[in-house]
């Protein structure tokens, strides 16, 4: 097969490309330029997609003896990932930009271009497995639970999954680093990138304030008592405890947490931890990597990339997915994804638009 290997400049994508070559595929490496000022995307081990990463990817491709190109997707990334991130926070939602990047960039823009150029598949360094099931290809959790990325890949549809290769799905991260060293890849011990690539300093509130400006409002209790003011509701997310600047504890001495963000009134509602428990989720914009489910079915639900799945009952009808969590989950925010599993298999993903207790 003709395979396009997306090479970020890290150890995972380099070893994934190497395995594709070793499997006998005709492999071409490509690095995605996602910023017009790429060097600004790294601060120490934080961030990614910089000039340094591009050079590391090129060196890895040279070691593997494969052609290598850089594709400029900065404008598409800005529109589909960065602007989506900003607008979501402005609307009181908590987005996952890595999930959106997989959906809109790596397995939409890149895959579409790859197929148009005659490639048969796109290979990445994600930790997940693709298994041939009775009804077609299935997306499953990785063998390494600490590195599993099936949650952020739950946005793939059946056509995208059919053209996806994840060579690291059965491997542990330590084994991948050892293999990179044996293959002479200079990125063998390169640190993993952390946090949001376009906010390398980790200051999400500062990034949003620069984009949205100050929008002062009130921090209130569940019964409407104003406790303090804030500079912008976008700086808060459901479940947040630090940075509330309330100045005094609750009457019972327990800490307060963000329970809700109301962007229209610029109100942030705070309260006790137990008020964060969620047992009902309503979600829209479903994505199904395999067969589209209908009706009501038992499953496991996961609401964070590294969260624990909990037993659930889901109902799919009229483009909406409702999920009853049989074990409460604390601090579920609008805009996050709920990913449904059957054992290790990903059933599908949808975007949370409402929660209940």
UniProtKB/TrEMBL annotation:
Give the family this protein belongs to, as stated in its UniProt record: Belongs to the MnmA/TRMU family.
Residues annotated to bind ATP: 6-13, 32, 125
UniProt keywords (A-Z) are: ATP-binding, Cytoplasm, Disulfide bond, Methyltransferase, Nucleotide-binding, RNA-binding, Transferase, tRNA processing, tRNA-binding
- Any keyword tRNA-binding? yes
User: Would you tell me the protein name for this molecule?
Assistant: tRNA-specific 2-thiouridylase MnmA
* Record's GO cellular component terms: cytoplasm
Q: Which domain of life is it from?
A: Bacteria
Q: Which PANTHER family match?
A: MITOCHONDRIAL TRNA-SPECIFIC 2-THIOURIDYLASE 1 (PTHR11933:SF5), TRNA 5-METHYLAMINOMETHYL-2-THIOURIDYLATE -METHYLTRANSFERASE (PTHR11933)
- EC numbers listed for it are 2.8.1.13
Could you tell me which residue ranges the tRNA-specific 2-thiouridylase MnmA-like central domain spans?
Answer: 207-271
């Amino acid at each position: 097969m003709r395979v396009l290997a997306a090479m970020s400049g890290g150890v995972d994508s380099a070893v994934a490309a190497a395995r594709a070559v070793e499997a006998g595929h005709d492999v071409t490496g490509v690095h995605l330029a996602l910023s017009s000022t790429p060097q600004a995307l790294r601060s120490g081990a934080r961030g990614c997609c910089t000039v340094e990463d591009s050079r590391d990817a090129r060196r890895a491709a040279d070691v593997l003896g494969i052609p290598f190109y850089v594709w400029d997707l900065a404008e598409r990334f800005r529109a589909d990932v960065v602007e989506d991130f900003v607008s979501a926070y402005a609307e009181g939602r908590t987005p996952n930009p890595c999930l959106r990047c997989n959906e809109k960039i790596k397995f939409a823009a890149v895959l579409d271009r790859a197929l148009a150029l005659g490639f048969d598949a796109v290979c990445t360094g994600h930790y997940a497995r693709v298994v041939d099931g009775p009804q077609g290809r299935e997306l499953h959790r990785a063998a390494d639970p600490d590195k599993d990325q099936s949650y952020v890949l739950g946005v793939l549809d059946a056509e995208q999954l059919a053209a996806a290769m994840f060579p690291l799905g059965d491997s542990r991260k330590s084994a991948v680093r050892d293999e990179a060293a044996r293959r002479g890849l200079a990125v063998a011990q390169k640190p993993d990138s952390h946090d949001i690539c376009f906010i390398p300093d980790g200051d999400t509130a500062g990034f949003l304030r620069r984009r949205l400006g100050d929008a002062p409002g009130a921090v209130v209790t569940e019964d409407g008592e104003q406790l303090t003011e804030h500079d912008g509701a976008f700086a808060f997310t459901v479940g947040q405890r630090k940075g509330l600047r309330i100045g005094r504890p609750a009457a019972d001495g327990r800490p307060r947490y963000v329970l809700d963000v109301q962007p229209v009134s610029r109100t942030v509602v705070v309260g006790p931890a137990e008020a964060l428990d969620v047992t009902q989720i309503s979600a829209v914009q479903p994505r199904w990597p395999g067969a589209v489910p209908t009706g009501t079915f038992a499953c496991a639900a996961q609401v964070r990339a590294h969260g624990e799945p909990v037993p659930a009952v889901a109902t799919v009808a009229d483009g909406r997915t409702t999920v009853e969590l049989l074990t409460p989950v604390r601090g579920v925010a609008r805009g996050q994804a709920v990913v449904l599993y059957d054992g290790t298999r990903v059933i599908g993903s949808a975007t949370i638009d409402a929660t209940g207790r």
